Prior knowledge:
Layout: E1 7-9, H1 22-30, E2 35-42, E3 48-50, H2 71-75, H3 95-105, E4 108-113, H4 120-134, H5 136-141, E5 149-152, H6 155-164, E6 170-174, H7 181-188, E7 192-196, H8 202-210, E8 214-218, H9 223-231, E9 236-239
Parallel strand pairs: 1-9, 2-4, 4-5, 5-6, 6-7, 7-8, 8-9
Antiparallel strand pairs: 2-3
SN-glycerol-3-phosphate is lined by residues 10, 37, 39, 52, 112, 151, 173, 194, 218, 238.
Amino acid sequence: MWPYPKIVAHRGGGTLAPENTVAGLRAGLAYGFRAVEFDVMLSRDGIGMVMHDPDFGRTVAGQGSVAGTDAAELAGMDAGSWFSPEFRDEPVPYYTQFIDYCKAQRIWMNVEIKPADGFEAATGAWVARVTRDSYAAELAAGDPAGYPLLSSFSYEALAAARDAAPELPRGYLLDNVPDDWQAQAGQLGAVAIHTNQKHLTRELASAIKAAGYGLFCYTVNDPARGREILSWGVDGFCTDRIDLIGPAFT
Ligand code: G3P
Ligand code: MG
């Protein structure tokens, strides 16, 4: 039901490195993590870039947006200085760079499709196609543990991912799980529900598991809370505190 890793580094290396950068992946590896969650958004010229915010101003300086800027320009932007001077000029990664790094280091990927407004279907389809093409050998091998897991808060993005590459597993991200979650997840062909640990109850966890879905939570930074939700049957979660909650956490 959950062939994937249990503990996953959030946005690359959690709070130990600038989010959504290769430096983050390196930080995760240094703590023994071979499982990562990160966010992918399309550039103006339709290339997937690893970035969380649709607009500049937080992790890259200045004004503008990912959807309004070409990939080559984004890739030259400094996504590290906001975090600390040590990471100055750490670039905004191409999604394909993350794939290459993760494959080389055998890091499992939870790829969050993070579309800018209006680009839901285009982003979902692009991420699904590129991921499927990059993992063709793993998909042909037929072992789900080797498949990346796509996820999104956007129903439309996940529907487009399903249509573009139905063979890739999908997790449906829901901040608050609505009453009709199962109907939506069924239409999307989702294998898992990804939800905010803050709102999760034991009853909800039981219902999701009883319905046969994987259950993944974001973002757990308190070890006691991590133990609690695991005891409720949660299959896995991502954490910013890779220094406190290691890959072998129980
Ligand atoms: O994929 C789970 C989590 O990353 C969702 O929230 O805002 O950190 O992308 P966010
Ligand atoms: Mg995310």
